[in-house]
């Protein structure tokens, strides 16, 4: 399993650059060599012409060093200073975006915006240096307009903005060159199986269902039974020994998954070793009473959907959630941006403007492991550690996919995974299963939450074999 990519925000990168200001060879020289190597790789033995659009800062300097090296290698390379002159019309084999880097702090406007749009209109592949120009390195927000690259080569460490919000739509394939710099312990990491490999243990032959815990799902109000059933099916197929689905709308059996034990929601709290509340829960008085009972129960607790909306509407209960964190009673919150905004008392737009900051604040306030769902889901812990997940695709933007994730998290915790590892594994697996389905021709358009469940089971078992 490959090492998990280290992530740093701009302040962290700047501090490292200052420490290596007198490095030999200089960091800019190393970056130029890395750009030249990536260019040769993208050309695949073909010849130029190569266009390098260089901006006024360090990013432009990296581009100029790359231009010198490429010219020394005999490649037809043309450098254009961004916004200073027109880009000549040629049949470019490759364009290199060296206009703006991570230091950009305001929207791209005027002549620079025209340069970005010109780059985007070119029919050739585009290599972005460090980050596509116009993209915020810390948040993934597009600052006015941004280059859409075929590939991005980032330096020293990955940047959060490459992997979340608008980043994946602008970066293309991302690679990171450390430039030979040891950054020590990074601020954050990209989620990969390396982070939970120790938990990928095959089951012994002498085992029984009681070894693998009991998940209780609380939800399924009238008209929303499917959400609770999806969470239950996901928990069952990800290995929980027993799954109780506590339904507000009583059903005799799940005909698709008769192994699920359907109970009255009031019964479920006392049967489980891990509770998940929220899928299809609704916001009735009965739902609120059930949530109060779940919060008071000394068990690991996964809260999603209407459980989060009820907490946002009842600050006293939310404060109680914030006080329940112990090694045996971890709390996991899995909001989408609108739910996160309600919990934080802000707007969805504010949450999306800095997804990492929002997730960290939720984790700090409520002593919970937080999964801020969306493009590049952010996982944040109360101690300030954070991760970004890069698996997944637009097929996950469908009803019920969050319910499946809730069941997955609960199932892994029931099987005695530490809560932090269970969350990382579930989030990564959830996205990887969607990627596998799309690669096999299912989706992304029309990919359903139910289709994810069998795909997650197959992939988890493959990981167990490979671990």
Provide structural commentary:
Helix 11 (337-344) crosses helix 13 (355-366). By secondary structure, this protein is α/β, with parallel strands linked by helices. Helix content is 39%, strand content 15%. It has helices spanning 10-19, 27-43, 58-72, 110-121, 167-171, 225-237, 265-268, 285-296, 306-313, 315-322, 337-344, 348-353, 355-366, 401-414, 419-439, 449-466, and strands spanning 6-7, 50-54, 77-81, 94-98, 126-129, 151-155, 173-177, 188-190, 214-219, 242-247, 261-264, 274-277, 301-303, 331-333, 369-372, 378-380, 386-388. The chain folds into 2 domains: 6-188, 3-Layer(aba) Sandwich (Rossmann fold); 193-466, 3-Layer(aba) Sandwich (UDP-N-acetylmuramoyl-L-alanine:D-glutamate ligase).
Brief characterization of the structure:
The protein has about 475 residues and is α/β, with parallel strands linked by helices. The protein is about 40% helix and about 15% strand. Helix 4 (about 110-120) links the parallel strand 4 and strand 5.
């Amino acid at each position: 399993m490959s090492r998990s990519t280290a992530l740093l925000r701009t302040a962290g990168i700047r501090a490292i650059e200052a420490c290596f200001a007198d490095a030999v060879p200089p960091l800019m020289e190393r970056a130029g060599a890395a750009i030249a190597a990536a260019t040769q790789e993208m050309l695949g033995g073909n010849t130029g012409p190569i266009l390098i659009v260089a901006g006024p800062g360090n990013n432009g300097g990296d581009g100029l060093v790359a231009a010198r090296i490429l010219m020394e290698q005999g490649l037809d390379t043309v450098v254009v200073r961004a916004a200073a002159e027109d880009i000549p019309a040629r049949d470019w084999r490759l364009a290199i975006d060296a206009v703006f880097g991570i230091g950009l702090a305001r929207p791209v406007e005027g002549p620079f915006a025209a340069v970005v749009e010109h780059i985007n209109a070119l029919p050739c592949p585009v290599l972005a240096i460090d980050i596509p120009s116009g993209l915020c390195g810390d948040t993934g927000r597009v600052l006015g307009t941004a280059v859409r690259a075929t590939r991005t080569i980032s330096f020293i460490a990955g940047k959060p903005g490459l992997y979340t919000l608008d980043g994946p739509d602008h970066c293309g394939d991302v690679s990171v060159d450390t430039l030979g710099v040891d950054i020590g312990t990074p601020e954050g990491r990209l989620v990969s199986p390396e982070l939970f490999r120790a938990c990928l243990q095959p089951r012994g032959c002498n085992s029984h269902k009681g070894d693998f815990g009991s998940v209780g799902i609380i939800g399924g109000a009238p008209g929303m039974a499917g959400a609770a059933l999806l969470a239950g099916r996901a928990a069952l197929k990800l290995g929980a020994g027993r799954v109780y689905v506590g339904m507000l709308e009583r059903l005799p059996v799940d005909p698709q998954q008769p192994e699920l034990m359907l109970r009255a929601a009031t019964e479920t709290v006392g049967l489980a070793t891990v509770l998940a509340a929220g899928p299809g829960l609704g916001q009735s008085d009965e739902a609120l009473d059930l949530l109060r009972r779940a919060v008071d129960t000394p068990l690991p607790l996964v809260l999603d959907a209407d459980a989060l909306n009820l907490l946002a509407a009842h600050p006293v209960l939310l404060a109680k959630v914030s006080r329940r964190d112990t090694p045996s009673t971890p709390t996991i919150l899995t909001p989408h941006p609108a739910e996160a905004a309600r919990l934080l008392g802000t707007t969805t737009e504010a949450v999306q403007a800095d997804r990492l900051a929002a997730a960290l604040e939720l984790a700090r306030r409520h002593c919970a492991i937080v999964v801020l769902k969306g493009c590049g889901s952010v996982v944040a812990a109360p101690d300030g550690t954070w991760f970004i997940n890069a698996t997944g695709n637009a097929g996950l933007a469908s009803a019920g996919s969050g319910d499946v994730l809730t069941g997955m998290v609960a199932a892994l915790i029931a099987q005695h995974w530490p809560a932090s590892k269970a969350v990382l594994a579930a989030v990564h697996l959830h996205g990887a299963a969607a990627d596998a389905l799309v690669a096999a021709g299912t989706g992304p358009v029309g990919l359903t939450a139910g289709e994810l469940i069998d795909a997650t089971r197959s992939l988890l078992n493959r990981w167990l074999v490979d671990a």
